[in-house]
Model the fold of this input.
Amino acid sequence: QKEVEQNSGPLSVPEGAIASLNCTYSDRGSQSFFWYRQYSGKSPELIMSIYSNGDKEDGRFTAQLNKASQYVSLLIRDSQPSDSATYLCAVNIDGGATNKLIFGTGTLLAVQP
Amino acid sequence: GAGVSQTPSNKVTEKGKYVELRCDPISGHTALYWYRQSLGQGPEFLIYFQGTGAADDSGLPNDRFFAVRPEGSVSTLKIQRTERGDSAVYLCASSLTGVLWNEQFFGPGTRLTVL
Done:
């Protein structure tokens, strides 16, 4: 079992719709979770961090964390073509013993105009 | 302010050669990380510095890889006797401190191609 799993996609949504991206992780001791956006040929850009169960909203983005079920999700409201990118889920594994992030392989999102 | 910077942006070398990749973190960030990313994969952790010391080097694939951060700011990743399998994008990130919830910010990366 991979430590951080994401559906590779592509996830195709029409412009203006809600895009839902999901991620599961294996280590119950994980305490910090991040979503990065990566455009083709560019480096990852941090868009959300979440540390507590529940929802965290920032503009059109909402991160959701459920530690009991070991999943974290990202919702993008009013999706725009400029949101088309690969979204990487990253988890601080090892319960904070180390500060390294473990990344999923990313989900490719395509927003259709 | 300025973000993380990395040089060179691209490096092409021949198998067996030695390369150095440089990272300049965000000013004031004490924690620095190296990752590498292959096509279609997420970044893979290599090494983490807190200040001048390597706090976690568990991701370095073998002893051909070495990294330093002598003054607690700029870091250099060194790869000896490069192999074709070392070809990847090498990413550097920094965070304000090494506290686990500190957000990591990435530089633009160095694309290494080993011929």
Notes: The CA atoms of residues 30 and 44 of chain B lie 21 Å apart. Chain B has no helices and eleven strands. The radius of gyration of chain B is 13 Å.
